[in-house]
Amino acid sequence: MSTPDVTVLIPTYRRPEYLRTALQSVVDQTARARIREVRVSENGADERSRALCAEFADRLPIRFIMRTPSATIEHFRLLLSEPCESAYVAMLHDDDWWLPSHLADSFAAIEAHSAVGSYSAFFDTDSERAPLQHAAGSHGANLMYWFALGCPAPLRPWRVGHADSLVASLPGTPGRYSTMVMRTDVFQTGLEIVTTGNPFDTDRMICALYGRSGPIAYNPLPTACIRTHPAQDGLRFSAPDMIRRMSQTTLWIFEQAKNSRIDLIAELDERLSRCPESHRELVVRLCSYPWMRNLLAKHPRLPAPLAAAWNVLQPVAS
Prior knowledge:
Elements: E1 6-12, H1 16-27, E2 35-42, H2 47-56, E3 62-66, H3 72-81, E4 88-91, E5 97-98, H4 102-112, E6 117-125, H5 136-148, E7 158-160, H6 162-169, E8 181-183, H7 184-187, H8 191-194, H9 202-210, E9 216-227, H10 230-236, H11 239-259, H12 264-274, H13 277-286, H14 290-296, H15 304-310
Parallel strand pairs: 1-2, 1-4, 2-3, 6-9
Antiparallel strand pairs: 4-8, 5-9, 6-8, 7-9
C-alpha cells in the first residue's frame, strides 16, 4: 500500500462551482492513497468554499484555510512559506482539474528519472462539457521542452536538465502550476521568485528556477485540464505591459544562466542546429515573440538560424 507523502495545494478565490470539479478530480486519482493532505486556501473570504470542502471531508483529508483577500502574489508567498510535512507538493488551481492518472503518472516519471519533481502536458479547455483539445498553450509547452531536449521520441517522460529548463522557458511558460508535482524543499525555493516584483510571470520563472535543484521529469502525454480565460486575461494586462514584463523575465532567465555558468546563446544555437527542418519554423516563431526578438536581436552572438529566419518572419503578435 502506498505511503501518504504528498500535499495537494489548491488556491481558490470565490468560485466554488470550479472548485467542486477540482476536488472531484482529486477524489478520482488512482494514486489517492498517496495523498496526505488536501490544503484548500480560500483567498476571498468566501464561506461557500468552506461548505463545499465539508462535502468532501469523508473522501479527502481536507484542511480548509480561510484568508482575507490579498494580492495574488501575496497568496502565492503564503502557499510557498507555510510548513508542510509531506515529502511532495502537488498544485492544482481551483479552475483546473486532473485526469485520474495524474498523480500516478507524475510519480512514475519522477522515480524513472530520479527527478526532484515533474510537469506534464495538458489539455486546454474552457468547460467541463467542451471536447478536450491538446492545443494552444499545451502545444507550445510540449514543443519547447521537446526542442530543448534535442527532439526525443514523445512516447515516455523526458528528463529535463537545468540548461534544458532555461532554454524551454525563454519564449514562454513550458509548465503549468496545475501539472506540477515537486519535492517540498524544492517547491519552497520558489519564494525567491516572490521577491522579483513581477507577478505576471511567476509560473515561467518557477519552471526555470526549479531546474537549478536537479533534473525535472516532463510527461509529454496530457494528465491535466487547464481552463482558459481569454477575456479575463486580456483585462489584467495591456499588450505593452505584458511585453515589458515578459522581457523582464527573459533577462532574468539569462541572469540565472550566467550565475550557473551556462552559455544560453550557445545552448540555443546547438538545439536549433539539431531541430528537424519540419519543426524549426515553429520553434523560430515562438522565438519571435517581441520579448524574445527585442532582446536577442541585440546579442552579438545571435544564432544564425534565428537571424536568417527573422529576415522573413514577422514577430508573433502579443
